[in-house]
């Protein structure tokens, strides 16, 4: 009887040792699509550039504000007016700040830095855009005041310089405040 138990144990042991282990199932990692989104959030450093620019303009330091512009920058208003070149933009704002505007302040600002990878329209420029909304309060040299909301879009070139500004504002309150 001992021999039978011993043979049974050896047989079981031998069978267990010779049994093929099933191949380990490999868990496949799902392929992650790396398709680029048409647009994504951009670095917050662009918001800092925008905020610093408004602070400089508010303080009357147009040169400091213009330091972040490229030499070939373009400045457009929604009414169709435009300025081409850093020198023209600087001259306009220096004259405005010294001869027309007594004080200007910006409040309730909202900033959104966006990187456009694939423009949705042919006229759109790819790259980094800083979208901003803020309320502006202006006191003019004639003593009149104006307050309104403004939306500004700034495009940055590869050197992180502003090469395009599009500003949306209502000219009516400005014209009313400047009327003689």
TrEMBL record:
InterPro entries xref list: NTF2-like_dom_sf
Protein name, as recorded: Nuclear transport factor 2 family protein
